[in-house]
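Milestone M4 deliverable, item 7.
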Amino acid sequence: MGIRLTFLACVLFATGLPAQGIYFAAANDVTWNLPGANENDSMPLGNGDLALNAWTETNGDIVLLLSKSDAWSENGQLLKLGRVRIKLAPNPFAASGTFAQALKLETGEIVISSGKNSVRIWVDANHPVVHTEIETEEPVRLEAKAELWRAKNYHLDQKAVQQAGFFEWGNNPDGLDFDPDTVLLAHDNRVAWCHFNTRSIYPLVFAKEHLESLLPKFPDPLLHRCFGMTMKGGGLVSDGNLALKSSSSSKSFRLDLYALAQQSADAEDWYSALEKITVATDAVPISDARTAHQQWWADFWNRSWIHVSGAPDADKISQSYAMQRYMTACAGRGVQPIKFNGSLFSVGHDLPEGVSSSEASHDPDYRAWGASFWNQNTRLVYWPLIASGDTDLLAPWFNMYVQALPLAKARTQNYFHHDGAAFIETIYFWGLPNVNDFGWNNPGLELQSEWMRYHIQGGLEVLAQMLDSYACTQDAGFARNSLLPMADATITYYDQHWQRGPDGKIFMSPAQAIETYQKDAVNPTPDIAGLMSVLPRLLALPENLISKPQHTLWSKVLNDLPPLPLGTTAKGKLPPQGLGEPDGMKIILPAQKYGGPRNSENPELYTVFPYRLYGVGKPDLELARNTFAARLYPFAKCWGQDGVESALLGLTDEARQVVQREFTSYGNQRFIWFWSKNSDWIPDMDNGGAGMATLQLMLMQCDGKQIRLLPAWPDGWTADFKLHAPFQTTVEGHVEHGKITGLKVSPAARTKDVVAPM
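Output delivered:
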């Protein structure tokens, strides 16, 4: 590893390029020397919106499983675009003793090689197209065929829908219908296929949730949505409506696949729009497109990095950090956010006719826990993107909530007859709770699911993320267009939804503390902590951004907040129903009142993360550490918070152990960074996000203008890093034996705000 880094550094520095981030990325490239067998042997590629899994089979076939971030079906299910199989004859990659398939992180491409034969696959970072460039030593013939598994209409009953992982529809007594893809007639030596939504579940969702009156105001985003691809290449001719083949043998081929998802009048209208995109894309010479693509990836890697060495598992931690950030970039610039349960990289295979998907054997569209966005899980993908400076990847997450605010406000008015907005934990991308949680035949307005009924604090956490992002970028446009609308709606809801108690303080009941304490929680700690965290920061925004009415409301709500509930332990742990021992340790409780636990979060520790009321350098650190020690549910993978909490509390040894567990929670596929499903699905993206956040917080924690370095960094670990801090600041340096050298803070005036062992 060290020799390779030195060589790459020499090459890149010799070119005059800003080398450090990109050569750390290159150090984590992956090469396989044997082809695979099936979809479980794939590597990921993507441009943030259009993505694919690529694998090579033992016969030399190259297979691409294609995805797009906004390929939503009539049922609100995120579908694949299709699969393409590329055959060469004679095939130089079959039975080859020099076979290699390499994932090149630094340039966002896969290179398959054997001797002087090579295939380069890349998803253009700036255009919706996949390029496959083939160069062979001897002339070969090429066939490229689209393989579609959604070939006919079919119906699944309630049990089969549950088995198929479609959570949102699992209790629908009527089951669910599924529609086929459309294959267009080949012409001009190109083929195309799509999925066109002739119907939509959107009106049914509104009807089941008693919101039919709102339908005219909020257009259906699913109806007539059409998504798919067209495929073409020089020297290729159509062979039926789903395949291309070479007109003659050649040593050089290029196969291009273009994608589009949009609402259209019909499939032909969609294809006309895709043709215009194809023409515009082709107007850029391939060499220029490749240069711009590689520049995008170079800029991405050079904006931030963490490289760890000098300890057991250090290489694994570095590589896992890089892989999570890479996969996030591959899928994180689309219209909708990253799905925590598989992202765009879930896989599957064709099933026999009449057999429906299950966890053990499923088609490529399967993903456990369905198509909704779960805040508790998805947030962890996005927290580390603030310190890595990846604001472009954060945008879809923030945009989903901001764009859903008008409907969320209208829902609040219809249900509760007051202003503001709140988001239930599990939502469709348009903002409503999924019907499975609301209830299929629910006569009332409260969700029937006790797991989700009052679970709304996620809106506060998104607001906290927005505040952190604004602190770093100082982007006034973002503040006006995203942060402040979210703040107005969220704080207004908390102000108006609950009455005040006899003490004049907000009395949150009925409520719940995350999913753990349901129905009977009073004044849940996560909500109180969230408001205590965001309100002072909102009040501190520049005067030219906020109005007097906003300032008055926020000050009033802050003054009306009840105190954080405190108590004592019982036998060293969080006590049942708050009944601690007189001589127990003083700790924070999950709510003022609460019953028995029904899940495994630790709501009391939301005071540490995400709301950071306690931590290194802050008052009452011992209280927070005692609370952490007394937690009922240690959890060091998936959506567990042990890593970020221990880092924020300066518990170095605990943080070190947790980040190692997070970053070695490998999946059972050949590309091991398709994280184990844990409590979700493969790849479990929140697991990797939690690992990224833990490692960042071990290195750097920011509070206002203060930048604290190495608050939980093991003395035996060496690191090179570049991270982003508030006020448009970057911090770069080398860590060894618990000391920092080569510290570079930009702008230099911010150096005075750094607290660090030197």
